Amino acid sequence: MGIIVDGSAFFTVRQLHMGVTAPRGANGYDGTWGVWLKNGADVLITSFNMSCAFTQDFGVQSFQLGTVISNGVGANLSINALYAGPYATLVSNVAFGAASNPYGLSGAGPKTSSYSTFWNVRADVPFPMPRTMYGPRMAWVGAKMGRWSGINTTLQWYMENNSTAPTWPIDVQADQLTQRMAPQQIITAFGPGYGCNPAPSTICCIGFSNVTCPACPPGYGLPSKLWGCAGELYNMVNSTGSRRLLDWSYAGYMAGEAPIPKLPIVTSVMDFGAVGDGVADDSQAFLDAVDAIGREGTILVPEGQYIITKQINIPNRVVIKGMHPATTRLVFPKPLSEVLGNSSSYTYGPAFIQFNGASWLDSRTFLANVTRDALRGQSVLFVSNSSAFSPGQWVRLVLSAPATGGIATDLMGGLAQETADYRSKPNLLSFNSRVSFVGVGFIKLDRQLPYNVSTRWAPGLHIFELSFSRQQAGIQDLTIEFPLTPYRAMGKEAGFNAIYFWSVVHCWVKNVAVINADMAVTLDGTHFCTVDGLQLSSGSRGVNNGLWGVWLKNGADNLIRNFNAGSRLVRDIAVQGLQPGTVISNSSGIDLSIDAMASGPYGLLLSNVDVGYGSRFWGAQVLTTPDVASFMTAWNVKSQVKMVAPNPLYGPLMNLVAINISDPAPAPGFNWYNENATKEVFPLDLYAAQRFKRLGVTPEIDPSEGQLAYAGPGYGCNGWTRCLVGASNATFPACAPNYTPPSVHFGCAGELWNAAQRLPADWSFAGYASGDNPIPNVPVVGNVKDYGAVGDNRTDDTDAFLRALADPKVVNGALFIPAGVYRITKIIDMRKSIVLRGAGKNLTTIYIPFSLTDVYGNTWSEAGTGSGVSDYSHGTGFINWWGWDPVAFDRTYLANVTAAAQRGATVLQVSSTTGMTVGGWVRINLDDPGDGSLVRDMNGGLMGNGPNQAGARSIIRHLSRISAMGPGWIRLERPMIANISLSYNPTVHRFLPMITMAGVEYLSIEFPLTTYPGHLMEQGYNAIHFNQLAHSWLRDVRIHNSDSGFYSWGMVFCTITGLEITSGDRGYSNGHRGIWLERGQDNLLSNFNITTKMYHDISVSFYEHSTAFVNGTGKDVNMDHHRAAPYAVLWSNIDLGIGSRGFDSSGNEEYNGNHTSSFITFWNVRGKLNALLPEPGFGPQLNFIGLKTQDWVWGEASNLGWILEKPPTAVSPRDLYTAQKLTRARRLVQPPAVVRPMGMCAPPSTAANSSGPRPATGRRSYAL
């Protein structure tokens, strides 16, 4: 016997675990009672585990009342009622295991009283039924029953959801408790002295106070019976009726949860030739700016008056921003009928500024069908596939109208019949919400359903974001003006149309004035869009001054606020279609009209609206059918005169709260609610009050970019020395007028550099001879003309080149190629130290007329993968060096590293120093142990690894000279660029590259101009490939019309300088890759110029580390980080050209993880456009220093350790690579190191007097 609860009430047994070490009885039972309840009430048994089997796991006896057994599991659970009539026992969310006898011992006669309930019970087999006389009024809800036939109906047994899918809520007792313990709402709102204190939106008492109700301040307000002071009356069942209000707090940009953003300014129309003088036509400048901006950002329109005579289509995530409506003015002197031309009118669009998106609902977006009906106010949907959902996911619920219709009729409460327009309509109505919970067979939404959902309407759920093609775009802070012309008439508009949004989400118009328009703003098929601060005005154009002010149609959850109609249009605001959840708040007009166009918009809210005179507020009403569907709410609507009530059929279930109208007389059954027609109610703006209630505060956040702080007052850089801004002293001279601020990560002369912090690599070692010496001019050892080459652009000179390279004397020097054009038609492979030297890239050309596919064929399976990828997309060129750099082989092995070390360390403990010398080069090799932990460590623990990195060898291959050594330790000249763990198999190796002193210089390589066939479909116009070369180079080379310009694999200490990548027009892209580096290190690419646009201009991938790109430029350079953990790569003093795609990158995320590992450093990178930071998934611990941008680190990127230094101009030094070279000797000076046995420490005097090496002191110290 485990526990007896006898005669007890309000008793809890929680987290009970009962088991046995071994079976106790031959009869299969391990005891008699697990828990025995009798003669009591309101006992809760929850969160239990019965891993053994009692005769009665739970015994409930003697009229035990209200027992709850919940949230437990058992191996073969039984709950026995013991014939004594326990009443209203609840078994909720319990797993019975084998369930061979879930109702306990059998016998004659009833065992329970009424209302024993089994809620979401499950078993390894279909749940059994008890014998028919077990007890009356039993219920099974969410239990997959073995049978249900033959039940004695006189016992009134009840069954619901006879399936394995659970019923919501999962645990009915917990849900009842939550609802009971929720904050108590005031049932009688209008008791004595009830009022609202506006400041905190709390209840206050008129004329007196007590503990719960403070005295009202002088400015208190009377609350509406539909809302109360702080929402305490929202949707309560009281004298007002049930659930009169929708939740409008989700209307507008980002579902009301974020302010309209300040996207970074990427460019100005002035950069593209705009004048803004009110005379010049600036149309092309606007079009060029829009075309150049690329992925996203803001186009600034400075103060001025800009003449535009063309239509402008705004792409995704692009904003047109002026300075202020008073100072930035876009003037459109012609209507669209003259610009685009047509014989009809522009009544329904388009507009001059067009935001064209798209919306689709198909297999790409589909998640699941809704399998059961749901009612308005509910939030649980039963679905055909709950595994397709995850909490936090936004979904789009779509209803389609059958031939018989029914959707629009239901939205009108069944009080009026829909028109034929709302029958046989796929995707007629949609509702958007987050998923807050996912169960088995059902989901719970963050929002309550605003209307009923019937399975007759084929309800389906789709991925919200994927069902729209365009978002995050807008126009703001300017005026749009048309000439003053007579308004023709409705249906005859000339096309003075300003702004049109079609099928977009999360877009906006903000602080825009529109003058003399036929159409100001249209939101067509939009969701979560905001029009904020739109001002309409016009000279006299006739009786009406235009047709549309704001026209909303066929969308949902849009917000119009702070709108002012300063002139009279046919329809100041028109709301067309079912358009659920539209909000118009804090708006006004001289005689405002809001026209529903007899189209049945549902749940339209007009909150704190001043309609001016008030003669036409309801628009052009249709007297025979409803204009609006249910729950149109007019809240605090003011007018100069008492307005006439709408016609009796205007709409069902309307809410008229504090609106100055004559006594309304709705049609029978339309059930209008009318409250307080003479005075404002609290809150003044219901939309704002609902938003405040849901979000707590209004999230109007203006991200601060912050200011840089340097080391000391007036700290600046004069050249590469520190100076004082506006002052001088003995240590620091006064700054020159053109000084630049230093980076806090380097200082003026490297005094702030620390390899253990954000710049772990010393890139001064990059390139030929580890940066110690310039590229040499090696002696000529042969001339291709001596071997039969002609160079006349007609003769095939391939064999002459091959003969020259086969000559054993042509080695360790240059093979000279005089001026001329040399045709090469075969691959030239080299495995020796030789430099191909021309007479100059404008004089010597190697012309290759064929592709590798032409010469050698193509299996289109890339190394036999059967992938359909060209054999030449990733690799071989026509000119190839095949070297060998044994990275971690037995022949190179010297020692193990025997103790862990941190990034920035220089002293390493090793198993042996045999074979090592001071001044000699060694390589520290790190392998992943098989779990991806090395790459995760390189990522700072902030991001994971791709599957291909788990178990990869030689991910880090750090090269350094030994600067000192002793028994069991060495000191490296270069600090370690990564952490060392013993789990990474850290080893020390010789650096033994097989081929050095090779390369190409002073010539051009050219292919014929062909159409680029597409990504990974390359024919193989591939120029140069370096494989495992060291101390080699490309110098002053031009490559023209290539698929692949220069490709390297495992290249070390090589310099590519003066490389030009050029091309004619080959189509949508001019080649695959310009420059591609992988699995190499310590390479230098300088003074490059990519004058064309390749698919990837420059790519780094697969563990390329410590490499530097410096002083390069191009047309629109793309720095492609192609995944697989490139690490500590420097981009310094790079001019991207246009700069529309600087960070665009691709690669196989599934296998190779994020685009970069840590410490990719962008130093003084700039373009014509302001750069946009990459997406957060790009990589961790990125350095953006001196980047030309107005972007900031926010959102997910804030948790990835990115740093952004962006002073007003570039930081000092301009080129970090050059500065590191000039300061290397001073920065790397270190005192002698001492390494003591672990656990031993000599006192300072002993260390000072010892004859051995002194301990390290200063900025770097090592405790080993």
UniProtKB/TrEMBL annotation:
Keyword 4Fe-4S: no
Keywords (A to Z) from UniProt: Disulfide bond
Any Pfam family: Pect-lyase_RHGA_epim
Superkingdom in the source lineage: Eukaryota
Residues in Rhamnogalacturonase A/B/Epimerase-like pectate lyase domain copies: 267-322, 783-852
Gene3D superfamilies per record: Single-stranded right-handed beta-helix, Pectin lyase-like (2.160.20.10)
Keyword Disulfide bond tagged: yes
Location of region: Disordered: 1240-1264
InterPro entries (UniProt xref): Pectin_lyas_fold, Pectin_lyase_fold/virulence, RHGA/B-epi-like_pectate_lyase
Protein's UniProt name: Rhamnogalacturonase A/B/Epimerase-like pectate lyase domain-containing protein
Source organism per UniProt: Tetradesmus obliquus
The organism's taxonomic lineage, starting at the top: Eukaryota, Viridiplantae, Chlorophyta, core chlorophytes, Chlorophyceae
